[in-house]
Design brief:
The chain has 18 helices and 13 strands. With 443 residues, it is α+β, with helices and mostly antiparallel strands. It has one domain: Cytochrome p450. The protein has a five-stranded mixed β-sheet with strand order 2-3-9-6-4. A three-stranded mixed β-sheet has the order 1-8-7. A hairpin with a 3-residue loop joins strand 11 and strand 12. Helix 11 packs across helix 12 and helix 15 runs antiparallel to helix 16. The longest helix is centred in the first third of the chain and has 21 residues. The N terminus is likely disordered.
Length: 443
């Protein structure tokens, strides 16, 4: 968390701010007529008007925030003024910690926080390692046979195995993997579902039923005292909480379980897929990471972590963070009225040439050398900052690093038809499959 996140809200003084610069209507009309991605409009707004700028998709302006100081103000210094109203994935995750607000969110986060730091993380080290070894064994088989694999699917399989082991204590089995494909199916179509909640739920009812059945079975097993080979998991923490906390109903446990399941694998899998696509374009980065030290060395681990961090700069786990101003405020010298919608955009902040020289270039030295990256906390925040920063930050970085320590020295995927563009939905994901064969490492 940002060290200044606990500062009290500063008083709003009327008349102290100037109006937020607003994009001319023609810009929005041209974008709308062209049917482009939202990121294209946001990029043009930022380029023309700077790091705090407004545009209108309806009668009221929406304020885009990419300036680091303004980012820190919204997410870390004044989170009580700029609130999260609803999560785009609520249909899938219900009232889980990502979608919860107010006192309910504070209670849920407090329960889970200890599981993802310090001692809590050490409980899952072996499970992460076993999932990585399982994936490494599968890749050795692909390399022997020359079989084509889909790197994106492989990364999802690894990340799902990791979070399933962490939740239940069991390795992922084939049947559960097939049923949980419904999580990705729902997440992918969420941006295109009907606005009406009932119609939206009806459109994905079959997939939601599959997810609920898996959750119900896992919760019943945890309640029955069943623990996997690695002992109890995160799900047992939730079921144990229900014995003392009446708010942990069957529905909330289901919502929290699905939240951890969905958030715990989709973002990691997407990051790792992008990383391999980037290494395909920049093979020298792979060699640089491996040359930083021998197997198991601190130098190699730090270089691999830099690969992950640079990938997250270009493709942050949360590419856009919506907030809603519930009070008048002065933001970076601009007046923001209560009721204004705010879009904080890590994707654009991370690609700002004033913060990141040659921002489109993939360069792990940004995270390996002194002064390689801006130090302001609002300049790099792939998992958010402030009290609502992602709980699973350390977990995601650890599992990504462990997997790459196993795979990177042994295999170089050769992509046949790599995706050529990104899709901006709940996450930023490659547009299409990622078929590859495993070539032996160079040299």
């Amino acid at each position: 968390m940002d060290p200044e996140a606990g500062l009290g809200a500063l008083p709003y003084v009327p008349g102290t701010g100037r109006p937020v610069p607003e994009a001319e209507p023609g810009l929005v009309k041209r974008w709308h007529a062209g049917g482009g991605e939202l990121i294209e409009l946001l990029s043009q707004v930022r380029e023309q008007l700077g790091g705090v700028a407004a545009f209108r998709l309806g009668p009221a302006p929406t304020v885009l925030v990419t300036d680091p100081q303004a980012v820190q103000h919204v997410l870390a210094r004044q989170p009580e003024r700029y609130v999260k109203r609803s999560h785009r994935a609520r249909l899938l995750i219900g009232d889980g910690v990502l979608a919860a607000t107010g006192e309910a969110w504070k209670r849920q986060r407090r329960l889970l926080r200890s599981q993802f730091t310090g001692t809590g993380m050490r409980r899952y080290e072996q499970r992460i390692t076993e999932a990585a070894r399982t994936t490494a064994g599968r890749w050795r088989g692909y390399a022997r046979t020359g079989q084509t694999l889909d790197v994106g699917q492989e990364m999802r399989r690894f990340a799902l195995d990791t979070i399933w082991r962490s939740l239940t204590g069991h390795p992922l089995d084939d049947e559960t993997e097939r049923e949980l494909a419904a999580v990705e199916a729902v997440a992918t179509v969420l941006p295109t579902l009907p606005v009406d909640a009932i119609d939206a739920r009806d459109a994905v009812a079959a997939d939601l039923a599959r997810i609920d059945a898996v959750a119900r079975h896992a919760i019943e097993a945890a309640r029955g005292g069943e623990a996997g080979p690695d002992g109890p998991g995160l799900l047992h923490v939730l079921t144990d909480a229900a014995t003392e906390r009446p708010e942990y109903t069957d529905q909330l446990i289901r919502d929290e379980f699905v939240t951890l399941l969905a958030a715990g694998h989709e973002t990691t899998a997407t990051t790792l897929t992008w990383l391999y696509l980037l290494l395909d374009q920049h093979p020298a980065a792979r060699e640089e990471a491996l040359a930083a030290g021998g197997e198991g060395s601190a130098g190699r681990r730090q270089a691999i972590q830099a690969l992950v961090q640079e990938t997250l700069r270009l493709y942050p786990s949360a590419w856009i963070l919506p907030r809603h101003a519930i009070e008048d405020d002065t933001l970076a010298g601009y007046t923001v009225k209560a009721g204004t919608d705010i879009l904080v955009c890590p994707y654009l902040t991370h690609r700002d040439p004033e913060l990141w020289p040659a921002p489109e270039h993939f360069d792990l030295r940004r995270f390996r050398v002194p002064d390689g990256r801006p130090t302001h906390p609002g300049a790099y925040f792939p998992f958010g900052i402030g009290p609502r920063a992602c709980l699973g930050l350390q977990f995601a970085l650890r599992e990504s690093t462990v997997l790459l320590e196993h795979l990177l020295p042994a295999h170089t995927p050769a992509f046949s038809t790599p995706p050529t563009r990104a899709v901006y939905g709940i996450t930023v994901r490659p547009d299409g499959p990622t078929p590859a064969t495993l070539a032996p490492p160079a040299g």
